[in-house]
Amino acid sequence: MHVELVLDAKAVLGEGPLWHAPTQRLYWVDIERHEVHEFDPATGYDRAVDVGQKVGTVVVRRRGGLVLALHHGFATLDLDTGQVTLLADPEAHLPDNRFNDGKCDPAGRFWAGTMSLTRTPGTANLWRLDPDLTVHHVLGGVTTSNGLVWSLDHRTMYYIDTPTREVAAFDYEPATGHIANRRAVAAFPEGAGSPDGMAIDARGMLWIAHFRGGRVSRWDPAGGAMLQAVDLPVRKVTACAFGGPNLDELYITTARVDLTDEELEDQPHAGGLFRMRPDVPGVESFEFAG
Ligand code: CA
Predict the structure, then answer these.
(1) Segment 219-273, tens digit of pLDDT
(2) What is residue 61's DSSP assignment?
């Protein structure tokens, strides 16, 4: 399957791709460069805004503008003025943690998890920013919070805490956002890199980025089988999101963080934004309803 380099961004840690269908733009972040990006595939123009601190992920706010999960809490961003406005910092007491991956659920709540910058096991958490701007603690004992998606029937939430090397599923209650009954539905084999960002396709199958594994793979959460794997010309594959006019393109972010000069020579497009066309389309992302 052909994988195309669409933007030779040379991101240090490209992450958090999110397709916004109403504007046909792809939002993504470079965590280490403190940048939020807005990519327009129609023109190839990529706008970057410095938000002044590490930024784990970005979602679109229904009333306009963006909402971020930053090193130091949830914030809004006005892309035109660059204005960042802090909403809440639930881990102000944990300065060695920063926000990492996150997504909005079908009811427009923004879920985002943290990670330990010192990789201290179990010190991170999963949080939820509700449309009324209240923050709720969802899960503790997390190490590196990643990959969040909801099943097509909105009754299951899939989640990755990277060092567990598995995809966890929870029963999910759309009306309240309550989750329960955690279980593992897929296990990442040794030697395949680490499971990182995740997307879901229109048949309910999961697409997972392999950090240090140089690929994205498609998984059936009922049974846990890996159905397909697609290699990229870079090793640090971080996250993926369906996009394009027909939602049948998979955008993939990558990183060049901590690569040696020799590795950079072998992977000149590390940190680039890639795109492939799976045989199945994806589903639209959800906006923040607050
Ligand atoms: Ca990630």
Answers:
(1) 999 999 999 999 999 999 999 999 999 999 999 999 999 999 999 999 999 999 9
(2) B
Distance 241 CA to ligand 1 centre (A): 12
Taking 3-state DSSP, the helix, strand and coil percentages for the chain, each rounded to the nearest 5, stand at 5, 55, 40
pLDDT at position 281, please?
98
Q: Tell me the domain boundaries of the chain.
A: 3-276
pLDDT at 125: 98
Which residue, among 222, 185, 183, 188, has the nearest Cα to 203 in the 3D structure?
222
pLDDT in tens, 141-160: 999 999 999 999 999 999 99
- The CA 223 to ligand 1 mean position distance, Å, reads 24
d(CA 176, ligand 1 centre) in Å? 26
Output the CA 147–ligand 1 centroid distance in Å. 7
| Structure-token pair, residue 157 | 């939430």
Radius of gyration of the chain (CA): 17
Ligand 1 geometric centre to CA of 124 (Å)? 14
Compute the distance from residue 262 Cα to the ligand 1 centre, in Å: 24
Q: Does domain 3-276 have CATH number 2.120.10.30?
A: yes
Q: Ligand 1 centroid to 254 CA: how many Å?
A: 10
- Cα separation, 158 vs 179, in Å, equals 11
Distance 172 CA to ligand 1 centre (A): 22
Render pLDDT for 81-110 as a digit per residue (tens, 0 to 9).
Answer: 999 999 999 999 999 999 999 999 999 999
